[in-house]
Amino acid sequence: MLIYKSRNPYLILMSNRVVISFILTILMVSMAQVPGISNIEYNDTKIEQKLDEKLQPNPVLLNPQSSYFPNTFIDDVHYFDSVRPVSITVGELHSCLVYDDGTMTCAGRNNDGRLGNDVSTANSNILHMDVMFPDDVFVVKAEAGYSSTCAIDSEGQLWCWGSNAGGEAGTNSTTNSIFIPHKVDFGMNESIVDVAISHTSKCAITENSRLFCWGTDNYGVLFFNSGNQRSPMEIDLPSHIKPTSITSEYYSMCILNEDGAVYCWGYNNYGQLGDGTNINRD
Fold it and tell me: Residue 220: helix, strand or coil by DSSP?
């Protein structure tokens, strides 16, 4: 299912058709003036039929009462006043979309402010709402977790919001909930390339393959064994481990190394770490 934020797809389709017809007319006139091909016949009726087949939307699928239009993508038609989703992430009870113009929306349950729309209630939003970034940022990637959300912008900055009971927002705040995106401070000019959200903790990888983690260290998912960590702390990795991506679920964490090796740690009660045991790893 593709989703568009579009104001009037019918007008855009009609304008595209007029433009295409005009271009075809100019081409036919130009070709008719070229010596040796002036006797070529042009079947305008067939061309028009093809255009109709290509550009005609299905009225049944369009919902003019909504700002979102599911299942309305038509090949070769560009919605000039619209934005198109480029990625999606799904958390425990919410989902978020990133669009090609760098904006971001979220929908679902809003416990702890996980939707980032500055609403401090647990009500559910059944429609996607804009995430309210305090700065003008261009979002390139988002990650939704159990009760919080993070986004990486085009400058490599990390923004997080939602539940913060264990410091998982990474803002060094003791507030239990963060209702709009806050920038995570790594204390240096580090560019973040990936982030993973476990149940109550987060880890991020920098462009220089450094690993930072914060939040609550349950089952050794943060290596700290020191309770809550409210700001990013660098994990001292062996020299041969240079992670390029990271993923997490519940209290388990895994990284993909640059040589293709996979390293996992944390909760392993069901053998989800894939190391042949059901022993937790920290």
Answer: helix
CB 240 within 8 A of CB 247: no
Per-chain mean pLDDT for the chain: 78
Domain coverage including residue 225? 110-266
Beta strands at 177-183 and 139-144: parallel, antiparallel or unpaired: unpaired
In a domain, 274, yes or no: no
Residue for token digits 């009037």? 8
- H-run or E-run covering 55: helix 44-55
CA gap 200, 148 in Å, rounded: 9
Q: What span, in angstroms and rounded, lies between the C-alpha atoms of 232 and 178? A: 17
The DSSP output letter for 190 is: P
163-209 tens-digit pLDDT: 998 888 888 888 899 999 999 999 778 899 999 999 889 999 999 99
Are the C-beta atoms of 145 and 132 separated by less than 8 Å?
no
146 plus 73 within the same structural domain: no
Residue 281: inside a domain: no
Of 82, 102, 129, which marks where a domain is finished? 82
Distance CA 269, CA 187 (A): 35
Would you say residue 90 lies in a domain? no
The pTM assigned to this predicted structure is 0.71
Instruction: Work out the end-to-end distance of the chain between its first and last CA atoms, rounded to an integer number of angstroms.
Output: 40
Do 13 and 121 have their domain in common? no
Hey, is 22 helix, strand or coil?
Answer: helix
What one-letter code names the amino acid at 6?
S
